Amino acid sequence: MMRSRNRPAPRLSFALALLFAGVWSAAPAESQGYPAWTPTAPGSPNIEVVSHLPLGPRLGVADIELEQEMSRPYAYVARMQYGDDGPKGMDIVDLSDESNPEVIYRWRIENQELHQRTGGMDVKYFKLDGRYYVVQSLQFGQGGPNSDMGAVVLDVTGLPDASTVREVARIRAPETPGGFHNIFIYRHSNGGVYLFTTVSGPGANVYDMGRVVSGDVENALVANIPVPESAEGAGGARGYHDFYVAWHPDTGTDRFYGGGTGGYYVYDVTNLQEPQILVTLTGINGVRYGHTFTPSPDGRYVVAETEYQYAPLRIFDLQPALDGQVTNVSRPISAWTADWQNLVHNHEIRWPYVFVSGYLDGLQIFTLMDPAKPITVAYYQTYIGSPNVDRTPQFQGAFGVDVRNADGLIVISDMSTGFWAFRMEGFQGWDGTNWGMPNVSSAQDWDAAEMPGPVRWRE
Amino acid sequence: MGLHLALVAAAFLAAWTPVPAADPAPSPRVDVGVIGWSQGADDGALCSPAVDPPEYYAIPLVPTRQVMGTGQAVGVAHTTFGSSPFGVTLAADGSYRLTLHIRVDHLPSPPQGRFVAWATTPSVEEVVRVGTLDGAGAVSGPVEWNKFLVVITLEPDGEEGETGWRGPIVLRGMSRSGMMHTMAGHGPFEQQECAAFGY
Question: ipTM score of the complex?
Answer without folding.
Answer: 0.77
